[in-house]
Design goal:
By secondary structure, this protein is mainly alpha-helical. It has a domain of about 35 residues. It has two helices and two strands, in the order αββα. It has a two-stranded antiparallel ribbon. Strand 1 and strand 2 form a beta hairpin. The longest helix has 20 residues. It starts with a helix and ends in an 11-residue tail after the last helix.
Length: about 70
Amino acid sequence: MARKAIVNKQRELNRRKNVAHANGTKMKHSTKHYNRCRLCGRVGSYYREFGICRVCLREYARQGKIMGLKKASR
C-alpha cells in the first residue's frame, strides 16, 4: 500500500485544487499532482496508458487480463 505521507499530501493538494477552482483562480504549484496506480496506490513507475504501476501491470499481463499484451520472453 502507498505510504501514508504521500497519500495525505495528495489529498491536501486535491483539496487545494478544489478550493481554487471554486474561487475561480488557478492553484499555486499545480504541477505537484502525482499519478497513482488505481489498484495499489503506488506513485513510482506509473504507466499512463494503462493507469497502473509496473508491478500490477506485470501481474495482470501474466494472468492475461490485459488485451494485446504478452510477455516478450518465453
